[in-house]
Each structure stands twice: as structure tokens, then as C-alpha cells.
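Entry 0007
Protein: SIN1-type PH domain-containing protein
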Amino acid sequence: MVDNTAHGPNAKKGKKGSSTGGGRMLHPLAQSQDLIGGYYRRYNVIRKQSMSFTASNQRVLAFDMDYMHIMPAETGKTLFESNSKTTSISFNDVVGSKVSRRHPKSFRVVVLRGNEASEQKRYDFEAKSVVEAAEIVEEIKKNMLQYHV
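Output (C-alpha cells):
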């Protein structure tokens, strides 16, 4: 998919590198809202593991209109050296999210796991600041409202 601003047989070709008819390459699955800069939020967080002897991992928490993506952070490792994967969770499967009262930089996200409504998975994260933790939880709750009416 190429985004050309000039269309039709009478469209003039501009000079190479000019702003008219720029021919910006897009992903084949890109939607029309992606052309105008659709909704997308991205936060660098630390994933806290429930067991104290395991190390905390840096992650990127990204939100688009329908999904929350937990991605590995951009480290110096190459694609094949990294053993972590991206997890995409529909906001339909998010049960809740809240900031910890004891540690205000920490927040929790609870999601449904599998087909059983009784199975849940908890993700514990730590944001860079108290304000960012509150902002992330607010974004999650706002996106949950689309599905939990």
C-alpha cells in the first residue's frame, strides 16, 4: 500500500523528495486510520515477577484501539538472542487494572486466561513515575469501557 496524495491520470509528478505525491510506504495491513495517525500509546515499564528470586524484565507496554501489547524492550540483543516474546491481549479479556497503594509506581493488570472465565493471569508492572503509572491504568480502564458496557 502506497499513500499518494496525487491521484488520477492528470496528476503532476513532482520533483524527487518534494512533499507532493511523496509515496510513503505502508504496511500491507495498514488501515485508513493509520494514515492519519491513529490511536497508539507506548510506555517503557518493568515487569515484576511474583517470585522474589527471579529478575525483573524491561518491557514495552503498547496500546492500540483493541489490544494491549506486552513487548520485549529494545536491548542490545539481536532477534535470535532474545528469548522473550510479544503478548497481545484484547481489552475484552482485561478484567481490571489498578495502581498499588503501597507502591504508587507499581500497577497490576488482571486478564482472562484461556476459555475458562475462572482462570485469570496477573501482570505486575512498575512505571517510571507515579504519574505515568496512573496514566497507564487510566488508559487501560478507558479502553476497557469499549467492551465492558
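Curator remark: The first strand starts at residue 2 and ends at 3. The helical segments are 32-35, 130-144.
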